[in-house]
Design a protein that fits this description.
By secondary structure, the chain is α/β, with parallel strands linked by helices. The protein is 40% helix and 14% strand. The chain is built from ten helices and twelve strands. The strands form four sheets. Strands 2, 5, 6, 7, 8 and 12 form a six-stranded parallel β-sheet that branches. Strands 1-11 form a two-stranded antiparallel ribbon. It has a two-stranded parallel ribbon with strand order 3-4. Strand 9, helix 8 (214-222) and strand 10 (227-229) form a beta-alpha-beta unit. Helix 1 (30-42) packs parallel to helix 3. The longest helix has 23 residues, at 176-198. It is globular, with a radius of gyration of 18 Å. 41% of the residues are buried.
Length: 278
């Protein structure tokens, strides 16, 4: 990337989960998502992949209007509704997969202009998706490996780890040593699954439910993960901390709302003041 660019003072990392007409928690409607992505294109934003974002945190320049799009958990609606919009604008997102939830099977239809809405797969709201996963029916809620491969081939998504089981080991373990051992095994299973299906594993990891502590960070580092994504609000500056990547939760609101958020959080000092006041 050219060093003559007017580099970003800060790079906001946006956090999505669902893009779906099935309303619920952590869900953005397809209409609002398309509106938000059109705004990013209209305003001249560049979406950074993991490699470019890592380089920025290490001090390399990126375009002044840069943003990272992230999607947690790997929901089917990311393939059905988010992927076609990202493809339309040539955008790239980071998808964080819970590898133990992903199944095999043929590619299902998605919302391209030539696809009838009646032919799209049924999508679950957030609560129903969680219930399906807990009942061992994750294929109803989560993308398949074939769909993940199609997204990678199209360049709309690159995929990284969100652990293998999405378990909060701090809540279910009897003691710290058991917690660490369970997390260690979870991360190893995640690396093995992603290596098998994707061919490689990055050093980017998103914490389940945003939780981490010293034990979690040490085990993640030992497993080879260096870029750790939180749910803590804020923006990310050049030479920032890769072990504590801040993200902004995106609401089900029109593009004007997101445009204002990006204006604030593209400016490090203003971002800190805003969050302190808020």
């Amino acid at each position: 990337m050219s060093t003559t660019l007017s580099t970003a003072r800060a790079v906001p990392v946006l956090m999505y989960h669902h893009v779906s007409p099935a309303a619920g928690a952590v869900t953005v409607s397809p209409v609002h998502f398309a509106d938000q992505m059109a705004m990013l294109a209209r305003e001249g934003y560049t979406t950074l992949g993991a490699q470019a974002f890592s380089a920025y945190l290490a001090g390399e320049p990126v375009p002044a209007k840069s943003v990272v799009l992230t999607f947690d958990d790997g929901y089917l609606d990311n393939w059905v509704h988010a992927h076609p919009v990202l493809a339309e604008y040539g955008f790239t997102a980071l998808g964080f997969l819970v590898s133990g939830w992903v199944n095999s099977g043929p590619v299902r239809p998605n919302a391209t202009p030539s696809t009838s809405a009646a032919n799209l797969p049924g999508l679950l709201g957030h609560s129903a998706a969680k219930a399906a996963i807990e009942a061992g029916e994750s294929d109803r809620a989560i993308m398949r490996w074939s769909e993940i491969d199609a997204m990678r081939q199209a360049g709309t998504f690159e995929f990284h780890s969100h652990t293998h089981t999405h378990t909060r080991w701090d809540r279910v373990s009897a003691d710290a040593s058991t917690k660490r051992a369970s997390l260690r095994d979870d991360l190893q299973q995640a690396r093995a699954a992603l290596a098998h299906h994707l061919g490689d594993v990055s050093d980017h990891l998103c914490w389940p439910q945003g939780y981490f502590d010293t034990d979690y960070v040490e085990e993640a580092n030992a497993a080879g993960f260096r870029h750790l994504y939180t749910v803590e609000p804020g923006t990310n500056s050049r030479h920032g901390d890769p072990a504590r990547i801040l993200r902004l939760d995106v609401r089900d609101k029109p593009a004007a709302w997101l445009k204002g958020r990006l204006w604030v959080h593209s400016r490090p000092l203003l971002s800190r003041l805003y969050l302190k006041i808020k």
